[in-house]
């Protein structure tokens, strides 16, 4: 989505565009449209009103958010055992864990920007896999428009070393979106004997990240394997409980993330 808006020169309009496209505003607008049609075409008006309300309620529930994720993205399951990466090594070359940045946020308590929650979740999981397997850890993330201060790569390098006590092998810090994550990382990998790249990102981001990295790898004429290590993946076949059918702020956040990634896929970002 970021790359698509940048290509159209709409970076400054991104918050407005996304707010209008994603729930709850998009569904509230549909409800208002339904109310406007009630006197002119009652059946159509009631269909818009009730349909928008039902969809909105569904997207506010964990069960609804997961159904939307499965339908639009089919995210991969979690990496059950990191040790399996060592049990089945690549046919040639070394392995490398790459954490993809998820953004920065203003942090007055730190006196500068810092990694946002998505980036920190990914970095933490990457550190865990690296510790369990001994596979080197790298990071990719630069500066998206709108915030000054250190890049994601610089912040990740500092946090990994000083807070997690697990230094990065290297950090790519010029990319602004997933497409550039892939292009700039693959450029760095040209001189490395990498047989398998382990991508650490959120489960909903995996389809778009894999597509971009596979394209960048193939364009560069390289042949390393790419394996996803998703964060926040729901266990396949896990039982639902009654709480999964009740509204939740986390559910609407996940539903919006699903739509963000789906639109990014449609736009070729």
Q: Overview of this structure, please?
A:
This protein has 269 residues and is an alpha/beta fold. The protein has two domains: 2-74 and 247-266, no CATH class; 84-231, HUPs (Rossmann fold), CATH 3.40.50.620. 49% of the residues lie in helices and 14% in strands. It is built from eleven helices and seven strands. The protein has helices spanning 2-7, 14-21, 25-37, 42-59, 62-72, 84-87, 117-133, 152-162, 178-189, 206-219, 249-266, and strands at 94-100, 104-107, 112-115, 136-140, 170-172, 194-202, 225-231. The protein starts with a helix and ends with a helix. The model has no long low-confidence stretch (mean pLDDT 90).
Brief descriptors of the model:
single chain, 269 residues, alpha/beta, Rossmann fold, 5-stranded parallel β-sheet, two-stranded antiparallel sheet, 49% helix, 14% strand
Topology of this protein?
Layout: H1 2-7, H2 14-21, H3 25-37, H4 42-59, H5 62-72, H6 84-87, E1 94-100, E2 104-107, E3 112-115, H7 117-133, E4 136-140, H8 152-162, E5 170-172, H9 178-189, E6 194-202, H10 206-219, E7 225-231, H11 249-266
Parallel strand pairs: 1-4, 1-6, 4-5, 6-7
Antiparallel strand pairs: 2-3
Helix pairs in contact: 3-4, 5-11, 9-10
């Amino acid at each position: 989505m970021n790359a698509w808006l940048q290509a159209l020169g709409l970076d400054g309009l991104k918050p407005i565009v996304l707010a209008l496209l994603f729930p709850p505003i998009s569904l509230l607008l549909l409800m208002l449209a339904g109310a406007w049609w009630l006197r002119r075409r009652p059946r159509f008006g009631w269909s818009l009103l009730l349909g928008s309300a039902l969809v909105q309620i569904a997207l506010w529930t964990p069960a609804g958010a997961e159904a939307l994720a499965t339908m639009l993205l089919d995210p991969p399951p979690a990496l059950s055992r990191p040790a399996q990466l060592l049990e089945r090594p690549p046919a040639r070359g070394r392995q490398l864990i790459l954490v993809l940045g998820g953004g920065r946020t203003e942090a007055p308590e730190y006196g500068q920007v810092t990694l946002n929650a998505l980036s920190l979740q990914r970095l933490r999981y990457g550190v865990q896999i690296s510790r369990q397997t001994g596979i080197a850890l790298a990071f990719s993330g630069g500066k998206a428009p709108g915030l000054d201060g250190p890049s994601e790569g610089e912040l990740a390098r500092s946090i990994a070393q000083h807070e997690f006590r697990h230094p990065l092998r290297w950090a790519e810090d010029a990319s602004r979106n997933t497409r550039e994550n892939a292009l700039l990382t693959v450029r760095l990998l040209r001189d490395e004997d990498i047989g398998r790249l382990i991508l650490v990102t959120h489960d909903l981001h995996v389809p778009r990240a894999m597509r971009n990295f596979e394209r960048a790898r193939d364009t560069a004429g390289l042949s390393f394997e790419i394996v996803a290590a998703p964060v926040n993946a729901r266990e396949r076949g896990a039982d639902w409980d009654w709480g999964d059918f009740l509204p939740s702020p986390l559910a609407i956040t996940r539903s919006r993330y699903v739509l963000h990634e789906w639109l990014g896929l449609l736009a070729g970002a």
